[in-house]
Write a structure and sequence with these properties.
Number of domains: 2
Number of helices: 20
Number of strands: 21
CATH architecture of the largest domain: 3-Layer(aba) Sandwich
Largest sheet: 7 strands, mixed
CATH topology of the largest domain: Beta-lactamase
CATH class of the largest domain: Alpha Beta
Length: 667
């Protein structure tokens, strides 16, 4: 294979061989010459020394060509570089770049200065104020928080009244329109109603109408259960709020409803123990304020402060629920059977004054008191003449003063006229009777009682009546208690001074009358009747109530004698229907006139003690205007027997272990 080596280009005369540029100039010159020759041109181009030859036309009036441009190999430029620049000088592009960089640097620094200034302004100057404004817009208003109302329990700690967790669902009608809808519901109030109605068991259309308006707060439903409240909250519906409120409930309904009472919509007691002990049961209010989100929910970890509320004390009563139930059931049945207007049963422990049952006919259900009016506890507010049960005071006073003994003998006529011409008679017409003091009590003779009691001075009669509690409130923890009526002795008229001896011309409440017999059963010591055993605080610490006030009314000997005399009333007198097999029972029947709204009526009663050898119970049964019979021994004594027998068994009281020693009733 033949290799052809190219010939080097010939230099033009006077040309300087420089790398790259010179070679190109020589080649151009040769090529130009050849081209000229070919065309048959007759002129030749003169080239200045040091300048590359060219075929350009000479400038007008000159025989030499113009100097070559920079880059053609002349002018002092570097190889391949542009001619005409001084060594080290910047070109226009480099100068522009440096100017732009400086400008941008100044601009950035200026912007940073502005941002820094703004940051200082926002964070240092106005920042705290703006932060406070923002926080204030998220904070709830300072809200009062009430402590939970304390319970009311029976003697065993079983709740008779308690507060449970319930909720109120409300709407801010301005915010409901913000609901954007979901796959299950359209936007706005219609969608909110569609989601909320099933949970509130409401009609969608009706609920939707209640969601629209200008109210900032409107209650949609009360007494909402906790599980429903949680579901509503989980929906996150705008404008729908759920607040917890305490709800008072009474688990046993009518059981002791008259004693417990009830509260109003503001959780304030308005009847019964709820009213009387409202200050004890009501907790101490606190307050709270917290940072909330768009839907009103508390922001976790957000601002929150407050003073926690303190729950009220729980009150333990002396009521024994089973005995209360029996007393109420037996009373209601007898009121219905006898056609009585009303009635009361009181069960008391004579040793402590504790009321174990306090039943008034027609007891209400505190869960739905409705339009209850007047006193719920006529046993402490309504008064009546005690009748023959009041003869116990006369006998106790006569024995204490030494005027008579249980076996003193009297000839008792059907009618008896006093020195001032007042005539009294017994309830049943009879021939002249030969009765002992015990017999006068057992047969409930009015004439015999006047014959014995008239030997007591009038001031002494009043003194003993007041000692036994007549004319004064007992202090039992119920609202509306009456003191009864007992005029001073100097205000008694000619008949009243004798009538008070057998329970007329004065009036008492059922609790006062029961307390008289409790005093006799307790060795002559009157202990104030009470319903509160003590209180329990938030920590579960039980504090017993202070011991009830006690007063020695008559001697223990006198009280024991009267109790034995009362045992004869059941064993061989008007109270035979009160007898309880296995237990020694003492008691007294009573029948007295009463006046209600100007209409005369009858109050029939029986009050008794069991067992006589170790008194544990005093039970009174009082019926107002019985239609089947007016005698206490007929309509009231059987109820005493039923209730007392049940209560003795419930308390585990052993049967009597001794035989009675009875005083003779006749001679």
């Amino acid at each position: 294979m033949t290799t052809t080596t190219p010939r080097p280009a010939r230099r033009a005369p006077g040309a300087t061989a420089t790398p790259g540029g010179a070679a190109r100039a020589t080649t151009t010159s040769a090529t130009t010459t050849s081209a000229t020759a070919t065309r048959g041109a007759t002129t030749s181009t003169a080239v200045r020394p040091g300048v590359v030859g060219t075929n350009r036309r000479p400038a007008s009036g000159a025989g030499n060509a113009r100097p070559a441009r920079a880059g053609a190999g002349g002018g002092g430029g570097g190889a391949g570089g542009r001619g005409g620049r001084r060594p080290g000088a910047l070109g226009p592009v480099a100068a522009d770049a440096r100017g732009r960089t400086a400008f941008l640097t100044v601009l950035v620094l200026a912007l940073l200065a502005v941002f820094a200034g703004r940051l200082v302004w926002v964070q240092v100057v106005v920042g705290p104020a703006r932060a406070e404004e923002a926080l204030a817009s998220r904070l709830t208003t300072r809200t009062e928080v009430l402590g939970t109302r304390g319970q009311i329990t029976d003697a065993d700690g079983v709740a008779l009244a308690t507060s449970v967790e319930r909720y109120v669902v409300w709407v801010n009608q301005h915010q409901v329109a913000e609901f954007r809808g979901s796959d299950e519901a359209p936007e706005g109030a219609a969608g909110v109603a569609q989601l909320l109605a099933p949970l509130l068991d409401a009609d969608v259309a009706e609920l939707g109408g209640r969601l629209v308006g200008e109210a900032g707060y409107k209650v949609l439903q009360k007494d909402v259960l906790p599980e429903i409240a949680r579901e509503i909250r989980s929906l996150g519906l705008p404008g729908i709020g759920v607040d917890m409120v305490p709800d008072r409930v009474y688990p046993n309904g009518t059981l002791a409803g008259n004693v417990v009472g009830f509260v109003n919509s503001s959780d304030q007691g308005v009847a019964g123990l709820e009213a009387a002990l409202d200050g004890t049961l009501t907790g101490e209010a606190g307050w709270e304020q917290y940072e909330r989100g768009r839907m009103g929910q508390a922001i976790p970890g957000g601002y929150s402060e407050g003073d926690p509320a303190r729950d009220g004390l729980s009150v333990r009563t002396t009521i024994v629920s089973d005995i209360q139930w029996k007393a109420q059931a037996a009373l209601d049945a007898q009121v219905a059977a006898t056609g009585s207007d009303s009635g009361t049963v009181v069960v008391m422990d004579p040793r402590t004054g504790a009321v174990l049952a306090l039943a008034d006919s027609g007891s209400i259900d505190p869960n739905s008191p409705g339009g209850s009016t007047g006193s719920l506890t006529p046993s402490v507010s309504d008064v009546f003449e005690p009748g023959s049960t009041g003869k116990v005071v006369t006998m106790a006073a006569a024995l204490e003063q030494g005027i008579t003994t249980p076996t003193d003998q009297y000839e008792v006529p059907y009618t008896y006229t006093t020195e001032n011409g007042q005539t009294f008679k017994d309830s049943h017409e009879h021939e002249l009777q030969r009765l002992t003091t015990t017999g006068v009590l057992a047969e409930s003779s009015n004439t015999g009682t006047v014959m014995i009691g008239q030997r007591l001075s009038e001031p002494t009669r009043e003194e003993y009546l007041r000692r036994f509690g007549f004319g004064a409130r007992t202090g039992i923890e119920l609202p509306g208690e009456s003191a009864g009526r007992l005029l001073p002795a100097e205000e008694w008229d000619g008949r009243s001074q004798y009538a008070v001896l057998f329970g007329q011309a004065l009036s008492v409440t059922a609790v006062q009358a029961t307390s008289v017999f409790a005093t006799i059963a307790n060795g002559g010591v009157r202990v104030a009747p009470h319903l509160v055993a003590g209180t329990t605080d938030e920590d579960g610490t039980f504090t017993p109530a202070a011991p009830a006030a006690s007063t020695q009314v008559v001697s223990a000997e006198t009280a024991g004698t009267v109790l034995s005399m009362l045992e004869s009333v059941v064993d061989d007198g008007t109270g035979g229907s009160a007898a309880i097999e296995g237990y020694r029972v003492a008691g007294k029947t009573g029948t007295a006139q009463n006046w209600v709204d100007g209409v005369q009526g009858i109050t029939a009663s029986f009050i008794g003690v069991a067992p006589v050898d170790d008194p544990r119970l005093v039970v009174s049964v009082i019926l107002h205007n019985p239609r089947t019979s007016e005698w206490g021994g007929t309509v009231a004594a059987p109820v005493f027997q039923d209730v007392t027998r049940y209560a003795l068994g419930e308390l585990g009281v052993a049967p009597s272990g001794t035989a009675p020693t009875l005083y003779p009733t006749t001679w």
